[in-house]
Amino acid sequence: MSAPDNASRPAVLTVVNLPSFYLEPLRKHFTVYERLHETDPDAFDKLAPSIRAITGGGESQVPSALMDRLPALEIISIMGVGYDKVDVPAAIARKVPVTHTPDVLNDEVADLALGLMLSVARRIPQADRYVRESQWLHKGAMPLARKMSGARLGIVGLGRIGKAIAKRAEGFGMTIAYTGRNQQKGVAYPYHATPKALAAEVDFLVVITPGGEGTRRMINKEVLQALGPRGYLINVARGTVVDEPALIEALQQGVIAGAGLDVFENEPQVPQALRELDNVVLTPHMASATHETRQAMADLALANLLAHFAGKPLKSPVPEWRAR
Ligand code: NAP
Ligand code: 8YV
């Protein structure tokens, strides 16, 4: 779509602070109101009837109450594969398509999952501190760590990213098993019907399902007990998938060996008790956060908006929209 003049540019509301490499091309095609509903409610009241699109990130809230304020809303474009905080049934009821950015981030998220596995088992952040704080000099060699190559990996959610994690883990000579709501056709890895059954069979349990009600606190005390004192939990999915208080207790009491966490229940708040633990590696929800991948996500989010306003097929609608 070539850039329209000012008057004919559709109005878009952003619901998160977007990076400049998304905002700048967005402004070429649209009149962009940056988080106007939060920054200037009076101006938002006046402009809301003209807003035809919402765009935000994978963690953005798009409740039906916001949609109610936007009678001209035509599309919600999420720059992220997860969309658990978008009220998709409410959007579908209004005939408003929701799009997201699958696949373009698979490699990046899988890379970080493997990075967290290595970090927690080989204690790489602790080793870095050991050198910086001159502990090597004064105490000698660090205590021995845990071998990852050849260990048993369990994947909770063998979807696009889960499969990219499995492929990388094969390179480490790991054995792989998985769980999900369904056994997958054409997948040779052993399937376990529940996270608990899977956890009992593995050394590393990697969680990479969607968030939302269907998976809330699915990784609970029982699953952690099944993972056991030599097991590591890695969560690159959503904080809501893990029972965080139960995880903290399990880490404090040695019920599991450690955890690598990119996501948390109440981001960016991370419980003090978790931050004080030495057997965890924590990252700030950054699994897709490289220039290359965030650019690809921004390009796809924009492409969905442009396709919609050009009357062309959407590039990547969410499955619920496709299946409606
Ligand atoms: P996907 O291809 O849809 O895969 C999701 C997998 O989860 C599927 O294998 C699905 O299998 C399983 N699943 C869904 N609901 C489940 C349930 N209730 N219980 C058990 N398993 C369930 O999605 P993806 O592209 O791999 O992305 C997965 C998620 O990763 C996203 O939704 C997002 O939350 C998260 N993510 C996080 C980051 C980050 O920055 N940390 C970045 C990208 C994505 P079944 O249908 O057989 O259950
Ligand atoms: C980003 C994510 O944090 O894609 C997702 O579901 O969680 C991450 O890639 C986010 O979406 C960036 O907008």
What does it look like?
The chain is of the alpha/beta class and 324 residues long. It has 2 domains: 11-104 and 291-322, NAD(P)-binding Rossmann-like Domain (Rossmann fold), CATH 3.40.50; 106-282, 3-Layer(aba) Sandwich (Rossmann fold). It has 15 helices and 12 strands. It has helices at 20-29, 36-39, 41-47, 64-68, 88-93, 106-122, 124-132, 135-139, 160-171, 195-199, 221-227, 244-252, 272-275, 291-309, 319-322; strands at 11-14, 31-34, 51-57, 75-79, 98-99, 152-156, 175-179, 191-192, 204-207, 232-235, 258-261, 280-282. The chain has a 7-stranded parallel β-sheet with strand order 8-7-6-9-10-11-12. Strands 2-1-3-4-5 form a 5-stranded parallel β-sheet. Helix 11 (221-227) links the parallel strand 9 and strand 10 (232-235). Helix 6 packs across helix 9 (160-171). The longest helix is centred in the last third of the chain and has 19 residues, at 291-309. It is elongated and about 70 Å long. The model has no long low-confidence stretch (mean pLDDT 97).
Search tags:
binds NADP nicotinamide-adenine-dinucleotide phosphate; alpha/beta; 38% helix; Rossmann fold; 7-stranded parallel beta sheet; binds 2-keto-D-gluconic acid; 324 residues
Which ligands does the model contain, each kind named once? NADP nicotinamide-adenine-dinucleotide phosphate, 2-keto-D-gluconic acid
Order of helices and strands: EHEHHEHEHEHHHEHEEHEHEHEHEHH
- Which structural class do the helices and strands define? alpha/beta
At the first level of CATH, the class of the largest domain is Alpha Beta
Number of domain units: 2
First-to-last CA distance: 27 Å
CATH fold-level assignment of the largest domain: Rossmann fold
Name of the CATH architecture of the largest domain: 3-Layer(aba) Sandwich
Low-confidence stretches: none
How many helical elements?
15
In the sheet with the most strands, the strands line up as 8-7-6-9-10-11-12
Helix share bin: 25-40%
CATH superfamily of the largest domain: NAD(P)-binding Rossmann-like Domain
Strand content: 15-25%
Mean pLDDT: 97
> How many strands?
12
Characterize the biggest β-sheet: 7 strands, parallel
